[in-house]
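Box 3.1 A note on notation
Throughout this textbook, protein chains are presented in two layers. The first layer is the amino acid sequence; the second is a token string describing backbone geometry. Keep the layers aligned when reading.
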Amino acid sequence: MDVFVFVLFCTISFIQAAQFTKDDCLKPVQIGPVQCKAAFRVFSWRKGKCQETIYGGCFPSKNNFKTLEQCKQVAATICSS
């Protein structure tokens, strides 16, 4: 079971990394219109790092990650280069 979860996580990260481009680094942080707020991680090009923000849950940009680690692996790598 642990191997399956690991492979699934790696696959999702790879797919997300393949879809995330340098242009996505400049997309603004979107809070979203939904009342149900959740914490998400985004890459802040102004700060040059991933940070936590509150997101409403509808129509996310590609610059929206469930974990800080995922943000660092995908966005920070692309946006910092």
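The helical segments are 2-19, 68-79. Residues 37 and 62 are 18 Å apart (CA to CA).
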